[in-house]
Amino acid sequence: MTMTTQTLNFINGDFLPARSGKIFENRSPVDGRLLAMVAEAGEPEVDAAVRAARAALAGPWGRMAIAERVDLLYAVANEINRRFEDFLSAEVADTGKPASLARHLDIPRGAANFKIFADVVKNVPTEFFEMSTPDGKGAINYAVRVPKGVVAVVCPWNLPLLLMTWKVGPALACGNAVVVKPSEETPSTATLLGEVMNAVGVPKGVYNVVHGFGPGSAGEFLTRHPGIDAVTFTGETRTGMAIMKAAAEGVKAVSFELGGKNAGIVFADCDFDAAVDGIGRAVFANCGQVCLGTERVYVERPIFDKFVAALKLKAEAMKPGRPEDPATGIGPLISREHQNKVLSYYRKAAEEGATVVTGGGVPNMEAGVAGGSWIQPTLWTGLPETSVIVREEIFGPCAHLRAFDSEDEAVGLANDTPYGLATTIWTGNLSRAHRIAPKIEVGICWVNSWFLRDLRTPFGGSKQSGIGREGGVHSLEFYTELRNVCIKL
Ligand code: NAD
C-alpha cells in the first residue's frame, strides 16, 4: 500500500468516501508508518448502508432459495482462499501479528466461517407438534425460521477477519443483511471482503461496511439507527454496556461477546511440559490480545516454583520482530494507545509490590521498527487477589501466578471475578477434570488444551463476559426468528 491509499466504506456494492470528506489514519503497529487513510462514515453513510441492507432484504436476496444462498457462501469462502495472500498481507499490516499466526488461524478461519454456517442452515430442522382438540380432529403446529432482518456487526481489532466473519457468516447464511463496523484499528480485511462479495455475485446491499470510531461516530450512529433489527458485538464489556443502552431504543436484540479475566489452573499431576506449553500459548499468543487468553494462573503448590521458572524461560525465548520474519515469536500490541494502557498496568504491578519474574517494560528494538508498539512478555507473582492486576482485563502478554493447595480453593479463585469467558485446566486425573469443569463459571472450559475450537459447539461468555451463544446451531438463535404456524385440521 502507498501513503495515498484510502480505505473506503462499502455501501450497496460501491466503495465510497465520506460525504463530509472526513478521514483518519491507519498506522502500522510494527513501525508506526502510515498504511492508509480511512474514510470515516458519518450519519449519511450509516443511513445509506442501513437502507441498502433493508432494500436487499426486499429484493433478490430476500427471495433467494436456501440452496442458492448456501452456494453463494461457499463461493465467498473459496474466493477468500483464492485471494488468501491479499487477506493475509492486509491483516498482518493492520495488526502487526506474525504472518505465520495469521496464515494458520485468521485467514483460514475467516473463510471457514462461511462454509460451516452454510452447512448448518442447510441441515437444521425445525419442530413439529401434533395436538388433540375437543372436536377430535386435532391440529398441527410447525415452526419456520425467518431472518432477523438488518444486523449491525460491531467488531474488535484482535482477530479482525476471524471475529467479523464469525458473525457475518451465520447472519448471511440465515438470510439477513449486515452493516459491519470494523475496529478503527483494523479496517482493511472487512473492506477487502466487499470485493469478494461483488466478485462472487452476492447481491448489492447484503454486505455493507462503515468505518469509524465508537461514540459520536459510525459505531454509535449504527447501533442506535432505527433501521437496525439486531446488534451483534464483540469487544470490551464497557462498550457492550454503551451499545446495550443504544439498542434499548427500539428494543433491538443483542448478542455480546465481551471481555474476560480468564484463569488457568495447573494441578501437580499434569503433563508438565504440555501444561507449560499450553499456558504459555494462553498467556502470550497474539501478544496476549486474545479474549480467551489467560491472565491469572493458579498452580498447585508442589510444582509452583518449577512451573514459574519454566514459563519464564518460555517468555524469554519469544523473540519480538517483524511479522514476515519466521523467527518472530511475538508481534507488537495493536497501537501506541494500547501499549500505554498495558504499560500502565506494568507500572501498577511494580507499585503494588509484585515480584517481576520476567519482563515489565518495552524491549529494545532495532532502529527500523523502534516506532512500533512493542511490549515485553511479563510474569508476576506475589500480589493479593484484590490487586487490579489480578482483577482487571489487561489484554497484554502477561499473567500473575499464584500457588493453591486444594481443588476447592482453585475453583473458588477461578470464579472470583465478574467475568466468565474461558478457563484452561491441566491435570492427569480425568475424574477431577469432570468434577471441577462444570463448577467453573465460564462459557468454555478447556481440559489439557487451550483454544481448541470445534465450530459446532456453543461459544460465549457467562457473567459480564457476554450474552448469548454463537457457533453451529446456536447461532441460529440470534440470527433467525422462529415463527409458529398452527393449523386446525
Ligand atoms: P472495544 O470495545 O474498544 O471496541 C470494539 C468495537 O466497538 C470497535 O469497532 C469500536 O469502534 C466499537 N465501539 C466503541 N465504542 C462504541 C460505542 N459507544 N458504540 C458503538 N460502537 C462502539 O474493544 P477492542 O479494544 O476493539 O477489543 C478488545 C476487547 O474485546 C477486549 O475486552 C476483549 O476481551 C474483547 N473481545 C472479546 C471476545 C469474545 O469473544 N468474548 C473476542 C475478542 C475480543
CATH architecture of the largest domain: 3-Layer(aba) Sandwich
Please provide the count of β strands.
23
Chemical compounds bound to the protein: nicotinamide-adenine-dinucleotide
β content, as a range? 15-25%
Distance between the termini: 66 Å
Biggest β-sheet strands, sense, barrel: 7 strands, mixed
Question: Could you say which structural class the secondary elements and strand pairing correspond to?
Answer: alpha/beta
Q: Which residues sit in consecutive blocks of at least 5 with pLDDT less than 50?
A: none
The CATH topology assignment of the largest domain is Aldehyde Dehydrogenase, Chain A, domain 1
Q: Which class of the largest domain in CATH terms? A: Alpha Beta
Would you mind describing this structure in some detail?
The protein is an alpha/beta fold. The protein folds into two domains: 6-258 and 465-488, Aldehyde Dehydrogenase, Chain A, domain 1 (3-Layer(aba) Sandwich), CATH 3.40.605; 262-454, Aldehyde Dehydrogenase, Chain A, domain 2. It has helices at 43-58, 60-63, 66-82, 84-95, 99-123, 160-173, 188-200, 218-223, 237-248, 272-284, 304-317, 336-351, 388-391, 407-415, 430-436, 474-479; strands at residues 6-7, 9-11, 14-16, 23-27, 34-39, 128-131, 139-147, 150-154, 177-181, 207-209, 230-234, 253-257, 262-266, 294-300, 355-358, 378-381, 398-404, 419-420, 422-426, 444-447, 462-463, 466-467, 480-488. Strands 15-16-17-14-13-19-20 form a seven-stranded mixed β-sheet, sandwiched between helices. It has a six-stranded mixed β-sheet with strand order 10-9-8-11-12-22, sandwiched between helices. Helix 3 (66-82) packs across helix 7, helix 4 packs across helix 5 and helix 10 (272-284) crosses helix 11. The chain is globular, with a radius of gyration of 24 Å. The N and C termini lie far apart (66 Å). The mean pLDDT is 97. The structure holds nicotinamide-adenine-dinucleotide. Residues 154-158, 163, 181, 183-184, 213-215, 219-220, 223, 234-236, 239, 242-243, 257-260, 291, 393, 395, 421, 461, 465-466 line the site of nicotinamide-adenine-dinucleotide (NAD).
